[in-house]
From TrEMBL:
Official protein name in the record: Tetratricopeptide repeat domain 23
Gene3D superfamilies (alphabetical): Tetratricopeptide repeat domain
One Pfam family here: TPR_12
Domain of life: Eukaryota
Coiled-coil ranges from the UniProt annotation: none
InterPro entries for the chain: TPR-like_helical_dom_sf, TPR_rpt, TTC23/TTC23L
C-alpha cells in the first residue's frame, strides 16, 4: 500500500515527476565539484543563511536579500549546478524579493530558475528524498505568491493548487506529520485568500481567510503575533461584505494581541487607530462610542511624542475632528482644531497643507456661525498657504 501511494505521488503532478527527486547518490558524488569537499564554503554558506534569517526577522530586507544572493553563489560552489539545494537557494532568494515591494518580477524569475534546475538536472527514482517533495511545495507556493504580486491570478491559483495537492498527498503517505501539514496549509490558504481578494471575490476570500486563521491558531496559538495580519485582512473582507460587527471584533482581537506583546507607543497607537477607523467606516451610530474610545487611546499614546510620533498624533487628531463634525459635535471639533494650530505650525511649518486645511476648516466653522469677516480671513489665508505649499513644497 505504501509503495502504491508513493507511485501515485510521482504520477500526480507532471512538474514533480520531472523535478523532485535527486540523482542516485553515487552518480551525484561524481558530479560534485572539488570545491564542495572543503569545509570553508560550507561554513560560509551556513553563516550567510543565518545572517539572512536574522535580517529578515528584523525586517531588514535589503540586507537579507544581499545575503541570499551570496547563498546562491555559495550553494553552487558547495553542491554544483545539479543539486536541488541550488534550486532551494533560488526559491529562498525569490522569497526575499517578495518581501521587498516592487520586486515581484525578480521573485518570479528566481522561482522559474529553481524549477528549471530541478527539471533539467534530476532523474528517477522519484521517491528517494522527502525533503525534495517538501521543497517542491515551497517552490509552487512561492511561484504562486510571485504571480499573485504580479496580479496574474489564474496562474497563481494553479501553482497554489499544486502546492496544496502535493502537501495533502505527502500527509496521506506519512511523509509529513499532521502538525507540519497544518502549518503548510495555513500559508497556502492565506495566499488563496489574497488571490480571491485581488480578484474582488470577497465571499471566496472570506472562507480561505477563516481557514488560514484557524490553522494558525491551532499551530501557533490564538495569541500568536502571526494571527494579527490574518485577522486584519479577514476584517477588511468582512467590512467589504458589510459584516461590520465581526469586522470590528477581529480588528479588536488583533489590537489585543499587539498590546499583549509590550509594543512601542507608536505601534500601539497605530493599532488603536485601525480599530477607530473601522468603527467609523461602518457608518453606524452604535459604533460611534467604539470609534471615539480608540481615537482617544491612539492619541493618548502619541500625545507626548516627538518627531514622527508628533506628526502622527496631529494627523489622527484631524481625523478625530472630522469624525466629531460628522457626528454633530462641531463645536468640540472646532475647539480642538483651534488648539492644534500652533502645534501644526511647529510640526509642519507655516506654509504646509496641514496648516492650510486647518484654516479652511476654521473658516468654514466661522461661516456656519455667521462670522463672515472671520471666515473670509481664515479661508483666504488657508487658500494662500495651500497655494504656496503647492508651488514651493
Amino acid at each position: 500500500m505504501q509503495e502504491s501511494q508513493e507511485t501515485h505521488i510521482s504520477n500526480h503532478l507532471d512538474e514533480v515527476v520531472a523535478a523532485v527527486s535527486i540523482t542516485h547518490r553515487k552518480k551525484f558524488r561524481n558530479k560534485l565539484p572539488q570545491t564542495a569537499l572543503f569545509q570553508p564554503p560550507r561554513e560560509k554558506l551556513h553563516l550567510c543563511e543565518e545572517k539572512a534569517k536574522s535580517y529578515s526577522n528584523s525586517h531588514e530586507y535589503k540586507q537579507a536579500v544581499h545575503e541570499l544572493v551570496r547563498c546562491v553563489a555559495l550553494t553552487r560552489i558547495c553542491y554544483g549546478d545539479s543539486h536541488w539545494k541550488l534550486a532551494e537557494a533560488h526559491v529562498n532568494l525569490a522569497q526575499g524579493y517578495l518581501q521587498l515591494k516592487g520586486l515581484s518580477l525578480q521573485a518570479k524569475q528566481h522561482a522559474e530558475k529553481a524549477r528549471q534546475i530541478l527539471a533539467n538536472s534530476i532523474v528517477p527514482p522519484y521517491n528517494e528524498n522527502t525533503d525534495v517533495f517538501k521543497f517542491s511545495i515551497e517552490l509552487f507556493h512561492t511561484m504562486g505568491r510571485a504571480l499573485l504580486s504580479l496580479q496574474k491570478f489564474k496562474e497563481a491559483s494553479e501553482n497554489l493548487t499544486k502546492a496544496e495537492r502535493l502537501s495533502k498527498e505527502l500527509l496521506q503517505c506519512g511523509r509529513i506529520i499532521k502538525e507540519e501539514w497544518i502549518e503548510i496549509e495555513a500559508r497556502i490558504r492565506l495566499s488563496f485568500a489574497q488571490v480571491y481578494q485581488g480578484q474582488k471575490k470577497s465571499k471566496e476570500a472570506l472562507s480561505h481567510y477563516q481557514a488560514a486563521l484557524e490553522y494558525v491558531e491551532i499551530s501557533k496559538g490564538e495569541k500568536s503575533h502571526e494571527c494579527v495580519p490574518i485577522l486584519r485582512e479577514l476584517a477588511i473582507v468582512e467590512q467589504a461584505l458589510g459584516l461590520h460587527d465581526v469586522s470590528i471584533n477581529h480588528f479588536l482581537q488583533a489590537h489585543l494581541i499587539i498590546l499583549s506583546r509590550s509594543p512601542s507607543q507608536v505601534e500601539a497607537a497605530d493599532s488603536a487607530h485601525i480599530v477607530a477607523h473601522a468603527a467609523v467606516a461602518s457608518g453606524r451610530h452604535e459604533h460611534h462610542d467604539v470609534a471615539e474610545q480608540y481615537f482617544q487611546e491612539s492619541m493618548a499614546r502619541l500625545k507626548d511624542s516627538e518627531g514622527m510620533g508628533r506628526t502622527k498624533f496631529l494627523s489622527i487628531q484631524d481625523e478625530f475632528c472630522h469624525f466629531l463634525q460628522m457626528t454633530g459635535q462641531k463645536e468640540r471639533a472646532i475647539s480642538i482644531l483651534r488648539e492644534s494650530l500652533e502645534a501644526k505650525v511647529e510640526a509642519f511649518g507655516d506654509f504646509s497643507p496641514e496648516v492650510a486645511e486647518t484654516y479652511r476648516l476654521l473658516g468654514g466653522a466661522d461661516l456656519a456661525q455667521g462670522n463672515h469677516s472671520g471666515a473670509h480671513k481664515k479661508l483666504k489665508k488657508g487658500d494662500l498657504i495651500f497655494l504656496l505649499s503647492a508651488t514651493f513644497p
